[in-house]
Write a structure and sequence with these properties.
The structure holds two protein chains of two kinds. The N and C termini of chain A lie far apart (37 Å). By secondary structure, chain A is mostly beta strands. The relative contact order of chain A is 0.34. Chain A has no helices and eleven strands. Chain B is mainly beta. In chain B, 0% of the residues lie in helices and 49% in strands. Chain B is built from no helices and eleven strands. In chain B, strand 5 and strand 6 form a beta hairpin. The chains are: A mainly beta, B mainly beta.
Chain lengths: 112, 112
């Protein structure tokens, strides 16, 4: 079993829809959770960075962490065609040296 | 503008040849990383460096080598010992080992 599971999609939605992207994980020691957006043939860019449980909002994006369920989500409101990209979740522990684990990414298509 | 520069964007290599991928950052970050990205898989860590003249193997270091002679530079050499080198290579940096990473735009290596 992978430490981080992410549905690869693709996920296709109409413009203006609310998008929900999710990852599950198995290691309860993960404390830091990140979402990256990656356009085709580009490097990932950091979207959201959260510590422990709870919600964090930034414009149209909301990151949610549920540590009891080992489940994280990224919500995109009023989705735009420019949101079409691959979204990668990532997480790491607070101690024990460096180890960031990435999900495989979910491909999102927002249709105009 | 501060950022991470990877070059070249596309690279072709004949089997049996070594090739070096360049990564330069002007963010004054201490830590630098090399990842490999293959379709349907998460980013896999090849090598990382916390400080000049020091680096550590990641999960898939076999067939790769790195150096860190300057803070701003972290070149990756893909040797002929790497059995399946065709992939998208991403360099990243962060201010510290346990802070969020920022990525370059990647180098796509193809073995012909």
């Amino acid at each position: 079993q992978k430490e981080v599971e992410q549905d690869p999609g693709p996920l296709s939605v109409p413009e203006g829809a609310i998008v929900s992207l999710n990852c599950t994980y198995s290691n309860s020691a993960f404390q830091y959770f990140m979402w990256y957006r990656q356009y085709s043939r580009k490097g990932p860019e950091l979207l959201m960075y959260t510590y422990s449980s709870g919600n964090k909002e930034d414009g149209r994006f909301t990151a949610q962490v549920d540590k009891s369920s080992k489940y994280i989500s990224l919500f995109i409101r009023d989705s735009q065609p420019s949101d079409s990209a691959t979204y990668l979740c990532a997480m790491r522990k607070n101690t024990g040296g460096f180890k960031t684990i990435f999900g495989a990414g979910t491909r999102l298509f927002v249709k105009a | 503008d501060g950022g991470i520069t990877q070059s070249p964007k596309y690279l072709f290599r004949k089997e049996g040849q070594n090739v070096t991928l360049s990564c330069e950052q002007n963010l004054n970050h201490d830590a630098m990383y090399w990842y490999r990205q293959d379709p349907g898989q998460g980013l896999r860590l090849i090598y990382y460096s916390q400080i000049v003249n020091d680096f550590q193997k990641g999960d898939i270091a076999e067939g790769y080598s790195v150096s860190r002679e300057k803070k701003e530079s972290f070149p990756l050499t893909v040797t002929s010992a790497q059995k399946n080198p065709t992939a998208f290579y991403l360099c990243a940096s962060s201010s510290g080992l346990n802070t969020e990473a920022f990525f370059g735009q990647g180098t796509r290596l193809t073995v012909v």
